[in-house]
Amino acid sequence: MTKQTLVQGTLLLIIAGLVTKILGFVNRIVMARVMGHEGVGLYMMAVPTFLLAVTLTRLGLPIAISKLVAEADATGDRSKVRKILIVSLAITGILSIVITIALFIAAPLLAEYFFTDDRTIWPLLAIAPVVPVIAVSSVLRGYFQGLQNMRPSAYSQVIEQVVRIALVALLTGLFLPYGVEYAAAGAMISVIIGELASLLYMFSMFKVKKKMRIRKGFFKQLKQGHETMKDLLNIALPTTGSQLIGSVSYFFEPIVVANSLAIAGITTAVATAQYGELAGYVIPLLFLPTFITYSLSISLVPAISEANAQKKYHLIEHRLNQALRLSMLSGGIAAVIMYVYAVPIMDLMYDSPTSASYVKIMTPFFFFLYFQGPLQAVLQALNLARSAMINSLIGALVKLTAIFALATRPEFGIMGAALGIVISIVVVTLLHFATVIKAISYTIVVKDFVLCLLSILITGGGAVYLYQYMMPQFSPVQGLTICVSATCAIYLFVLIFFKLLSKEDLKHIPFIKRWI
């Protein structure tokens, strides 16, 4: 089995994550062009149910499997690795059967009584077949990660997206003549086939690399696996807490939005189309910069953990300041580009320039999200994962309450849902920050943050000038490319001028430090 070092494995997963995000945007662009706002809305209403089913099926087991397999492999205990796989497959297998049956039963009820658009039944029903596939793939993914071989996980993510993109246009176009609800179901079927292709790849890698026979004595090993099950669940259940809160919150989001808009007097078809614009176009775009802060968070956990174990609290404070400054810098350029160039970006990507109004309203508040990953990483490193989970729970309740309070008012409508989402982001970020301050003695370096803010404002001014006077001189694609490139160049020049970036800072970002 080919192992990678921590940096190599992290770099591989980050590159795969970036490729997957880019392919995911291509997938959304294809759906938007074929199905329109209403079709995307139906699809996006089903997606939270899909993610909740995935969370419940996985139950945090990939991380638990990875940890236990790594420990067993370190001691050369192949029989324990085999037992871990058998018990994990049994747990996820049973869960997948229960959840699949539950989805078939619940889909008509959810469509009719919760989403207020009974056409969602078809994409909801299309989710069910993917659950058993995800059950097996999650076990294999945890197994490979435990053996420190990140290639199967990384490659399988890319394969899944490539297959999905290859089929989404075909399937949505094939079913569209029968109605947008069938086109949305076709898009969900492309997800199923993509996940199946990913599983087949990982299974083939497992067959080639494995040194054990799983089927031999399966039930005998299962009967003797009580201790292994206990070990798995002791790790998996606490891990899945925050994920489950996020998934449940996301599951209820379209339900609350749909019912709130109905109370506001907005018709079902219009509400579905508006939710498609918000959840299918705008939010994925605003989440894109978290790729950088996620990378930063990966290196931050061991760095803070090491300093905390050595009781070097001044070092914790120093590294936290570095992380927050880098988060502000990376989030700053993203915020400037998305705010100033919102209209051409949404027009070129989704043929939906009206969606730019959501982008402009949400971008300043989404700036808080770019601090959230590093702050949560610090809490995990300081053994405050439970506090982070409570903060997430509070944020979820705030989000659903705010959406209902604002979206039911006709003067807000779907914009009320957008505001509810950003209010939640601000609340969770501030709670994380307050928890960190309470845990450690932390002093904000005011000079750095003032200079960061000044850099963002200067770049924003330059971007506005480019947008108004340079972009009209070119075609939309050329103009956007030239102006965004020039904006980034202005930002880099200002950062160098203010001496806000150093080699030491860049070394904390895994996919950059390899090249420094």
UniProtKB/TrEMBL annotation:
Statement: the UniProt record of this protein carries the keyword Thylakoid: no
**Residue spans crossing the bilayer:** 40-63, 84-109, 121-140, 161-180, 186-206, 255-275, 281-302, 323-341, 361-382, 389-408, 414-437, 449-467, 479-498
Keywords attached to this Swiss-Prot or TrEMBL record, sorted alphabetically, are: Cell membrane, Membrane, Transmembrane, Transmembrane helix
Compartmental location: Cell membrane
In what way does this protein cross or attach to the membrane? Answer: Multi-pass membrane protein
InterPro entries, per database record: PG_synth_SpoVB (IPR024923), Poly_Biosynth_Transport (IPR050833), Polysacc_synth (IPR002797), Spore_V_B (IPR014249)
Name of this protein = Stage V sporulation protein B
In which organism is this protein found?
Answer: Fictibacillus nanhaiensis
Corresponding gene?
spoVB
